[in-house]
Design goal:
The chain is an alpha+beta fold and 611 residues long. It has 14 helices and 25 strands. Helix 1 runs antiparallel to helix 14, helix 2 runs parallel beside helix 5 and helix 8 crosses helix 9. The radius of gyration is 26 Å and the shape is globular.
Length: 611
């Protein structure tokens, strides 16, 4: 139990912050020095009492709360002395020469990551050729398997964690920092060991592979005979390499350049010899070519049926001391799309190769939706006045359900634009009806990406399945002696899927708490009477959830909807007044005022407001 210690008279209690646990009593001796107002970890005895086993700090401290979240969700913490010693020894190999690697240090390579990123596990290069009308994309991924041998102490602990956990003011890395932020990180100006995916495309193939007559903005002919078509590079090679990143670019920096707001800053001392004097200009030209290639890959992927769902995700702005100073919706910008497309291309290339070789590995699978879930979704959308494709549950197979979802997402942007309704709200409604992606030792394809073979390869610093895939690839290339049975892979896949969901819950809880702190600060500055314009994003029998100011979210209890008694509609799309028939529907605009903020739990209570 993670709880706040409180005192009433001479009685001490522990008030749980997370989950549905009940308050317990704590004897004076069982406090072990904990004081009222502190956050602590307790061991309940099952009889309404408990004992403090760890003190985390003041309950109003973000640092203590982040520690409490990691503890509550049982995220494995830290590293054993043996793993740290082993990691430090393996990190020394970063500077060791390796004649068996392809020397790509003369290529212009660069990374693009968030402003606050500290580890860089992917870099890209792009060159014309080798043939006429061809262009070659290099995706360089940190060679983590070189530094983390299978079965080593670091490997065992990385497998137990399965992924890094990123919270606004705290990170629990999968690998020790001496590897994740140093030896494996593709830092600019330093030779780094990678596994490279080299993909050569023909421009005429790229331009002609898209569905004829259907350009950007037009609907796709996703009929009953629709089958995803893979856009394949003309040639693909995989090998170990040595690269030297010439620049560490950020998403914001690249977006500013693409939008014409600013050119790239010159950082001559980090660039390859031969680029000085025109380094920024050369890199700018290369970025334009990358943008063109990514745009063609993206259009082809959408036209083969990949889902384009716009959802909300907060992006926090950090101060130099690590504190949070602001938040905005994570932009779906050109720089993000560029990196996303190149990483998807590399992941698919590795998946196809391993599938052809029938090599044991872990795939990232996303199955077709259930027919009954699609029918429920369409009923809800129809109840909200959003037209949906025809779909019959009686004849509904997962494949037909998938086609119906694709057809819906083709028409949804136009319909919502005509109705002046928010795409992200409805994107989240659609997303909730789909199955979750997961790791599996069998290739079942990826519905969301309309991909026949997909896996995770591009983030081995922060995801354990990627490290397993690296070993599988290198084994097939006869570059590493590694074997893993299907039973072992099944266990790794299941554990990784479970740990990924646990990390996601921890990250979401942390975001809610930080948002509550930021909202409290905003209202302190602007006054608690401030009225916000928001949108209903979720409806439950007891109330509404409203998102306002783009990022904040709060709960309006049904009891605060004055003048009537409100009930959930049959389709679950609205709360409706029993006498008046007035609805509060999903996606509706609504003015709200903040009534109360529980910063420690990340909960905000709202009431209807009048502008």
């Amino acid at each position: 139990m993670v709880a706040v210690i409180t005192k009433s008279g001479k009685i001490y209690r522990a008030d749980p912050l997370f989950g549905d646990q009940k308050e317990i009593f704590v004897g004076h001796k069982a406090l072990h020095g904990a004081r009222p107002g502190e956050l602590a970890v307790l061991r309940p005895d099952g009889r309404g009492r408990g004992e403090v086993i760890r003190r985390l700090g003041k309950a109003g401290s973000l640092k203590a709360l982040m520690e409490g979240i990691l503890t509550y969700y049982q995220v494995p913490r830290g590293f054993s002395p043996g793993a740290l010693e082993e990691a430090a020894a393996r990190a020394m190999l970063a500077s060791e020469p390796d004649s068996d690697r392809h020397d790509l240090t003369r290529l212009v390579s660069f990374t693009i990551d968030p402003d606050e990123a500290r580890d860089f596990d992917d870099a890209i290069s792009l060159v014309d050729g080798p043939g006429e009308g061809e262009i070659t994309l290099y995706v360089h991924i940190a060679d983590v398997s070189y530094f983390v041998p299978a079965g080593s102490a670091v490997d065992r602990e990385a497998g137990r964690k399965a992924c890094s956990v990123y919270m606004p003011v705290a990170v629990e890395p999968m690998l020790p920092p001496v590897l994740s932020s140093d030896a494996c990180s593709l830092r600019p100006g330093e030779n780094r060991k990678c596994v490279t995916v080299e993909m050569t495309y023909k421009w005429d193939t790229l331009l002609n592979s898209r569905v004829h007559g259907h350009e950007r903005g037009e609907s796709n002919p996703l009929g009953t005979d629709f089958k995803p078509v893979e856009l394949l590079p003309a040639k693909v090679r995989f090998y170990r390499s040595t690269i030297r990143s010439c620049r560490r670019l950020t998403y914001n920096e690249v977006d500013d350049f693409f939008e014409g707001a600013a050119g790239l800053r010159e950082v001559g001392e980090l660039l390859e010899p031969g680029l000085s004097g025109s380094d920024a200009t050369a890199l700018e030209g290369l970025l334009v070519r990358c943008r063109d290639l990514a745009a063609e890959l993206r259009k082809a992927r959408h036209e083969r049926g990949a889902l384009n769902i716009q959802t909300f995700e907060p992006e926090f702005r950090l101060a130099e001391d690590g504190g949070v100073v602001g938040v905005r919706p994570r932009p779906q910008s050109e720089s993000h799309a560029l990196i996303e497309e190149f990483m998807i291309a590399a992941n698919e290339a590795v998946a196809r190769f391993l599938e052809r070789r029938q090599g044991n590995c872990i795939y990232r699978v996303h199955e077709n939706p259930d027919a009954d879930a699609v029918e429920s979704l369409f009923d809800l959308l129809e109840d909200l006045g959003v037209a949906t494709p025809s779909f019959s549950l009686a004849q509904g197979t997962p494949e037909k359900a998938g086609r119906a979802i694709r057809a819906l997402l083709q028409s949804l942007p136009r319909v919502l634009s005509e109705q002046q309704r928010n795409r992200s709200v409805f994107g989240e409604i659609v997303l909730r009806s789909l199955k979750q992606a997961r790791y599996l030792e069998d290739n079942l394809g990826h519905f969301g990406l309309a991909s026949e073979a997909y896996l995770h390869f591009t983030s081995p610093i922060r995801r354990y399945p990627d490290l397993v895939v690296h070993r599988a690839l290198l084994r097939e290339l006869h570059l590493e002696d590694y074997s893993c049975s299907r039973l072992e892979l099944a266990e790794v896949a299941e554990a990784s899927s479970d740990n990924e969901r646990r990390a996601s819950l921890a990250e979401r809880t942390a975001s809610d708490i930080v948002l509550a702190f930021l909202l409290d600060r905003l209202l302190y500055q602007e006054g608690w009477d401030k009225v916000f314009e928001g949108e209903v994003v979720s409806v439950i029998p007891s109330g509404l959830f409203v998102r306002f100011e783009e990022c904040y979210e709060g709960y309006v209890p049904a009891r605060r909807l004055q003048g009537d008694y409100y009930l959930l509609s049959d389709k679950g799309s609205a709360l409706v007044g029993r006498r008046s028939g007035r609805p509060y529907r999903l996606g509706d605009r609504m003015t709200v005022r903040v009534v109360r903020i529980d910063k420690q739990r990340g909960k905000v209570e709202l009431e209807p407001g009048t502008p």
